[in-house]
Design a protein that fits this description.
Layout lengths: L1 H68 L21 E4 L3 E4 L3 H13 L4 E5 L4 H17 L4 H11 L13 E6 L13 H9 L5 E3 L6 H4 L7 E4 L2 H10 L3 H14 L2
Antiparallel strand pairs: 1-2, 3-4, 4-6, 5-6
Amino acid sequence: MKIKIRNKFKFIYAIVIIIVLITLVITLIVTNIKNKSIDTAIKETKVEENIALANATLYNIKENINSRLNDWKLILVNKENYLPDNYEVNLKTINGNMKVDERIYNDLKNMLNDAKKENLDLLICSSYRSTSKQKKLFNDKIKEYKNKGYSDEEAYKEASYWVLIPGTSEHETGLSVDIVSIDNQVLDENQEKTKEQKWLMENSYKYGFILRYPTNKKDITGVNYEPWHYRYVGKENALQIKKLNVCLEEYIEILKESLNKTE
């Protein structure tokens, strides 16, 4: 009788052990499933966060490019892009009787002052021009070529390489200045040999200016090389243009292509 009771307890004990083991296994499985679900949820959350971050970054890039393209600093005026009919400029006088857009005054003044500290003598020989003045300069240039024997068509074409057609000159924006050395006020390629021009070509970007019509860019700008014509584009744009070694037209195209790639 005692043996039967002992065997019965052993059987019950074994059953309990088995139930406990099964319970532990089930608990481990359930816990593992929960942990995997949590890990999956965390990973999915991180993916969503990364996607949101990427979209926000892309949006900021697009906004930045759009902002630059629509900024007054990058207004493009050339033979294909006329000055808008409603364009207005608030002028401020600098260096006696020269006038520029008041928004570039401080940077221009700082550039001239810093050059002076380097014992350089810079002279602004041309700045803002009204459309009527631009027209007079252009017609005078045409007459000059006609007096040399050029036909009307040839004189017009040649004149446009040196004096832009009214409505297409950056001088009409108030954002451009012609700067020469006081010791050499002749507007020719020898201007680049002066210490003043060498300094400007190296440092003007720090003040937001670029050499607008670089050498070997005539096919793009439509204007002959002018190592005296500087255009204000803002410090950030000027730095990028210098790094890329491009002219303004090329830089704007780069921005447009970058914008298209983000679409």
